[in-house]
Amino acid sequence: xxxxxxTRTRRGRAMLAAVPTVAVIGVLMGGVAQGxxxxxxxxxxxxxxxxxxxxxxxxxxxxxxxxxxxxxxVQPVAIANIKDATLHNLCQSVKVxxxxxxxxxxxxxxxxxxxxxxxxxIGMSDLRGTATFNQIRIGVDASTVNTKEHGSKxxxxxxxxAIDIQNLKQVSSSTSAAVFKLTDLHLKIxxxxxxx
Amino acid sequence: xxxxxxSGDEASPGSSADVSATRRQRFAAWRRDRPFWGGALTxxxxxxxxxxxxxxxxxxxxxxxIEGMQSTLLPVALVLLGVLVMVQPQFRVFYGVIALxxxxxxxxxxxLGGFGIGMVLGVVGAIxxxxxxxxxxxADAAVEPTSDAPGTSAEQGAGSTADTFEDLLxxxxxxxxxxxxxxxxxxxxxLALGGTGATATTQAAxxxxxxxxxxxxxxxxxxxxxxxxxxxxxxxxxxxxSPSATDGEGTDTGSAGGTDGAGSGTVDEPSxxxxxxxxxxxxxxxxxxxxxxxxxxxxxxDKxxDKxxDxxxxxxxxxxxxxxxxxxxxxxxxxxxxxGGEFDINVSLPGDCGKREDANVFSLDGELETRDLQLxxxxxxxxxxxxxxxxxxxxxxxxLRLSVDSVKVxxxxxxxxADNDGKLGGTVTDADYVSMEGNAQMxxxxxxxxxxxxxxxxxxGEKLAxxxxxxxxxxxxxxxRIGLMGATSDVQVWSDFREQVWEE
Lengths: 196, 504
Fold this sequence. Notes:
The complex is a heterodimer. Chain A is built from 2 helices and 7 strands. Chain A is of the alpha+beta class. Chain A is elongated, with a radius of gyration of 20 Å. The termini of chain A are far apart. Chain B has 2 domains: 6-207, no CATH class; 226-503, no CATH class. Helix content of chain B is 41%, strand content 19%. Chain B has helices at residues 6-11, 23-32, 36-52, 65-87, 92-109, 111-115, 117-131, 164-168, 179-207, 226-229, 245-255, 273-277, 285-296, 299-309, 314-331, 455-465, 470-476, and strands at 336-339, 345-348, 355-356, 366-369, 382-389, 396-415, 418-420, 423-449, 481-503. In chain B, a hairpin with a 5-residue loop joins β1 (336-339) and β2. Mean pLDDT of chain B is 66; it is low at 1-17, 56-66 and 139-312. The chains are: A alpha+beta, B alpha+beta. Chains A and B meet through α1, α2, β1, β2 and β5 of A and α4, α5, α6, α7 and β7 of B. β5 (115-141) of chain A pairs antiparallel with β9 (481-503) of chain B.
């Protein structure tokens, strides 16, 4: 009876659709911001910067690859794979070229609640920090690295069981993660301010 | 899309039923007959989501893998649903609810719902589509077509409760549907999918890297491996950063395999050191001559001296012999020592005679330079020649394997190589220091070291005669350049490093 009254009008139907949707989105957003609900990210096509106080990961490999830059030109990048990564105080920024406009994402600011990523793949052109590797192999062929993803035969590559990078500063052209747990997520449109 | 449905408009008994209605009016009428804005916003949501992962309008690319599939499939699905809900308004609830679910899921699946924007557009669009109702039947019009979704007929009388929301969605009657709609839908779907597929194929094709063609015979980016590559007299293969004639001579004789005194000419230090050292009687006369040369401060003169003195340096010759002997003793017959070229002493392993070791498959050599390789007091645990599998330049090759408990490499500089679709590229890494601890192994394909001045040759010979390790001495030399095939260790620290990508 009541339902039919609702479905009779456009407004009623809209309410019927909107109320549960908004509720679900609210719950999901809360979950995402707490890191309880993982999200999937896949970004490419423009350079962006990533900074983190520390990155700890397992199942690391790195080899040469390619990404397209802003002009659609193919750019060489180093592709880094990390099976499971934990990032403290993550900052990620994109700047719209030539405009005081950008996107600034920060997460994992609480030391007890870091950002977690699974199957992280980053195409980077510049990486700085202090790194410690465990069971590292440098110089192995890119097609024989110990990760699920691997590079092309004949390329210089490296892999390690574990990686720990302090003061990570990175310029990337692509990043993707199947599972991204972004705790304390802050996403804001910035005036072009970048992480570093 | 505006003109694909004129038949429906003509059937509509609305304001201007004239066949001569303008294009604009016909579009307005067409729009009124379907949840136009709902569909349009849903399409826009798909577009926004699509580009949220790409961030660049003029740069289409498909990401492969699970994550990439979501960020490609979901936006495409939203666009299709937006089109479908416009073309087949009778299924608006079905399409709308799916669009709603996809939009909400995009928060998790596609870059936080296209950073919020795509998700909001999709949700609003889908709600507009779901809640859209056809214009109530007029007295003079036909009844709602029976093709409408069941249940909607009940709402026909409720059109009077118009509000702002409904104003956004002008009332309209369900147009008569024909096979034409289905054809349009199919065409759009095929186009969309075909387009995506085509892009994906191109991407895949582009992603397949070309074979390492550069490495066909002997891969030698800098040209300083000519002896290892067995190249004979190609002048262009000879690297001579300083275009002095002495360099060229030295390399040629060096690669010819002879150590017959000509090597002395290759000491390309600009100072008068080599000239002095070569002053017939070795060390004693050396420094004096050196100083004299330096005082004259005339490099041309020094060079002339160099040339004049070429080929008659008995002490260096002796030193070279002793170095070679020591190397044979230390490394066995697999290693080859040459003197000259850009570097004074070059150790290479051209053969295929080491002990087989298959733990790792190596690729192109990297170039390692260090400020000062510090080996621990305990020294090197073992130096041996192993034969390892490689993916370029033959199935296997020899490498010098250094085993140490720990090693610290200050002023670490490593350049690696890769083939980027025919273009040479790779990374350059420098670090304050790199330390390796625990079961550290370095696989070295070549060592090139400069001796600071001619006297060191004789000194080196003496050291070796006393039983010192040639490899250890060479690695410790300033300016040593090491052809690094690989390195493994339990723990490795790269302090304050910076890794950058380069391409030719």
